[in-house]
Amino acid sequence: MDNYIIGVIALIALVAIGTIVKRKGRKGCCGSGSDYKPRKKKLKNVIATKIFKVDGMHCEKCSNRVTEAVNDIPGVAGVVNLKKGIVTVSYEQEVSDEYIKDRIERHGYTVTEIG
After folding, report:
1. Domain coverage including residue 72
2. Are 51 and 104 in contact (CB under 8 A)?
3. Is the distance from CB of 44 to CB of 77 less than 8 angstroms?
4. Which residue of 21, 27, 30, 98 could cross-link 108, Cys pair, CB 3.0 to 4.6 Å?
5. Could you give the number of structural domains in the chain?
6. What global pTM score does this model have?
């Protein structure tokens, strides 16, 4: 009987460790929802708009992280469309595409196209 209990505990521990290892390799997505809503950012004088195609956004929390990454840039505001996998970025001042791409990719996502 003791061996049975030890075996069950060992099996549970192995499953838990396997789950942790599998989740650790995941980039970007946290895999859970959230009640948190990122702050909306309004620009006074929009001079340009571009669309960034972003891979790796799977849930609302991913969308919130990308929105915050873009909205933290002065003179720039972003709106994510999770279904399409895009971020519409509005500019109030000149900011390089590479800088915005870098800010998004720091959070574990991949910018595949800028248009």
Report:
1. 1-115
2. no
3. no
4. 27
5. 1
6. 0.70
CATH number at residue 55: 3.30.70.100
Those residues whose C-beta lies under 8 Å from the C-beta of residue 92, and which sit 6 or more positions away, are 43, 44, 45, 46, 47, 75, 76, 77
Q: Residue 51 has which token pair?
A: 């669309």
Counting DSSP H helices and E strands in the chain, the numbers are: 3, 4
Q: For the segment 44-89, what is each residue's pLDDT rounded down to a tens digit?
A: 999 999 999 999 998 989 999 999 999 999 999 999 999 999 999 9
Q: Could you tell me if 109 and 56 are in contact, meaning their C-beta atoms sit under 8 angstroms apart? A: yes
Write the pLDDT tens digit of every residue in 51-60: 999 999 989 8
CB 91 within 8 A of CB 84: no
